[in-house]
Amino acid sequence: MFFAFSRVVFLLLLLSAGVLFAFVNNDDAFVRQLVERLQAYSEQRPIEKVYLHTDRDIYLTGETIWIKGYLFNGNSHVADTVSRVLYVELVDPAARKIRQRLQLRVTDSYAPGQLSLPDSISAGTYQLRAYTSYMRNEPDDYFYTKTLTILQPDASASTGSPQQKPLPRQLDVQFLPEGGQLVAGLDGRVAFKAIGSGGRSVPVSGFVLNAKKDTITGFFSLHTGMGYFAIKPEAGQTYTAFVQHANGSLDAYPIPVVKPQGIVMQVDNLTSKEYIRVYLRHNKVVETESSATAMTLVAQTRGILVHAVTVPFGKTASVVQLPKAEFPEGIAQLTLFDEANKPVGERLVFVNRNEQLTVGITSDKTTYKNREKVELTVTTTDAAGKPVAANLSLAAVDARLSPEADSNSATITSHLLLSSDLMGTIEQPGYYFDSRQANRTQHLDLLMMTQGWRRFAWADVLAGTIPARKYPLEQGLSLTGRVVRPNGKDIGGKVKLTFILARRDSLGKEGQRDFLVGESDELGNYAAYDLDFSDTTTVLIQGTKGKANRDLVITLDQLLNPAITVTRVPYNPFEFRRDELAEFVKRTSEYLEIERQIRRNGEVLLQSVTVKAKRVQERDSRTIYGTPDASVKFDQNNAAGRLTILDVIQGRIAGVQITGSGFSARVQIRGAANFSGPVEPLFLLDGMPVDLQTVLSISVQDVEKVDVLKGASAAIYGSRGSGGVISVLTKRGSPEYDLSKDAAPGTLVAKLPGYAAVRQFYAPRYAVKNEQSDRRPDYRTTLFWEPLVQTGADGKATVSFYTSDSKTNLRIRAEGATASGRPGVGTGTVRVE
């Protein structure tokens, strides 16, 4: 982890006298404590970040959203391979419901997948959000979110369902003193941000009056409703800002209260390329210049401490210069602590190290014909032009069918370096990373003055209070829940649990089954981690307590519908004219109907085929042995009145000796002994090794049969089978058993989604003659999607696809990052004539 505790000399400018002095960090007890506790907090509460690249932002019902998820270590931004499950949800913000959910498998920090939109989904504006289980320990504000527009074929001009259009509301203007407070007699700056109906920024202008109705200053917004003005507040005065509307009316907003004493912090991150200058002014009465009367300035980036500087109160004005070269790229948080070590001021700054990835896209020709092959070369270089290896995803779309609403929309760069560390909605985030925008640096500094950062509270850090992690890092899928009494009360102790996961094969038939055993904690909570299953899987959970007591109710967290909080305003960025979307809806509807007809024709052909063959006897996947030495099938006759499995087999298998009865019974297979005495047999429950107590806890009504292996037959299990093998096969563990019809007391049966199967993007290859595809009209909106484009050490990779029947421009976009976390975006255009 990057960690640099500042011990260098900083220049402090005594503004009143215009003289430079040098102060050295005195490494006092508070600074040492702060350094230690911030480092401990960051190590015990690491963060993760997620980004989703989709092929486009506007879809028709019935289409597929192609997705690639990227995972990063939130502190260092290196590719994060810790979490292996990525949750992707399509959220309806109006109904506050999750309409669709995916679980994507993460491999090497990447998670490709797709989301198929049903024909029944309503048109409107939706949020696509993504997160890991571990990210749920943070507020929902830090989940990845993206606004999507979904249209219906019969609503070509509609960009949102009526119920999703926000109601008009009064203009919301916030006034935010730089550093956090206004102090009497000290020059300060006040930033502001104006938001109108629908969550969009609004340009505003106005003026500030004091309590005497004297005009203090005027103001106007500079970018997306943001601006600032300078003010030197007077003691005992109150100030009010008046914002003027287009119709001439005025709205009044109070300016934060002026404090009689305090510290004002102003930051200059624009005039110097080498330093961040922090200007500190105070009007406190200071009796001594001891360390007890010093303030402390702390600079940290994503929980990584960069500088900690103590500044004496001896002079009323000073400036601290922080070298930008020592900061990681991204948002830095500057916090000022007073003489009582309480945080009294805070300011965000953005440090641009020019470490972003440059992605180039070039085609082998300038123009193409319809259904002609396009060869693209993708290059990835650093700021110096040197090639670097990177992993990217690339989409090629018909620009006419998929108009681009906002060229300044979010990218992997803007999300990783900006949005993921801020709360609230950031309008046009891509603007701040577009080198063609002359004023982007100034406007980005305005954003830092008006946007909130709240990854942690300093009070928790200084107190050494590290919030407990409720949600774990997932190396695989999880099953969590609780066992309670029917009346909802605690179960009063641990409960033995059996899990059966019945998977389905490619034909939809249940095949392999996984069998797990465990127990809950004293409160009835249970968890099974690191599971691996795909598509829809039937899960059975059975609990037993005491002597097969089934008076239990089992709940499963994965069946609960979590409450949805819309943390970022999902305003609709797609405000097109009717004619702009008409062709997209028309062409896409025609193409989808052709695809449906092809599927229907294929189903008719399949139904007319009759296959005759001998049925193959499927081998039970729970057993690795062949024919056992002995076997007892359980039925109503031999199981009636028996308490345990051993009670049933007692006296029915030669050589199996059972002493005692009930739950105190013991078993030995004749001849299984060594110099130390008798050797207990190996017990298997549906193929899984278990202990004798687990076997005794299984109800005899659940058992299909018991197989016994002796001597050489048990050698397949090695030394574990030296005492023979007793294999218990349950009815529920059988591939032929239908778990969904099981309604036994103390059991829970549910169908749960596993990892979503990843489909390969279909793109026709017109170089190969295909009578069916040659006849079919081709007006696809997305012509090509490749989620895994890996450039080599030379920084190059090639991809190819074929153009469609449209004479149009193809918009190419590639996004991705290096393994060290340098993000980059590249765009290109291909002309089809």
UniProtKB/TrEMBL annotation:
Residues 635-725 form the TonB-dependent receptor plug domain. PANTHER family: HEMOGLOBIN AND HEMOGLOBIN-HAPTOGLOBIN-BINDING PROTEIN 1-RELATED, TONB-DEPENDENT OUTER MEMBRANE RECEPTOR. It is found in: Cell outer membrane. InterPro entries: MG2 (IPR002890), Plug_dom (IPR012910), Plug_dom_sf (IPR037066), TonB-dep_rcpt-like (IPR039426). Residues 1-22 form the signal peptide. It is a multi-pass membrane protein. Residues 49-131 form the Macroglobulin domain. The keyword Signal applies. Its main location: membrane. The keyword Transmembrane applies. Keywords: Cell outer membrane, Membrane, Receptor, Signal, Transmembrane, Transmembrane beta strand, Transport. This is TonB-dependent SusC/RagA subfamily outer membrane receptor. It comes from the Bacteria. It holds the Pfam family MG2. Coiled coil: none annotated. Belongs to the TonB-dependent receptor family.
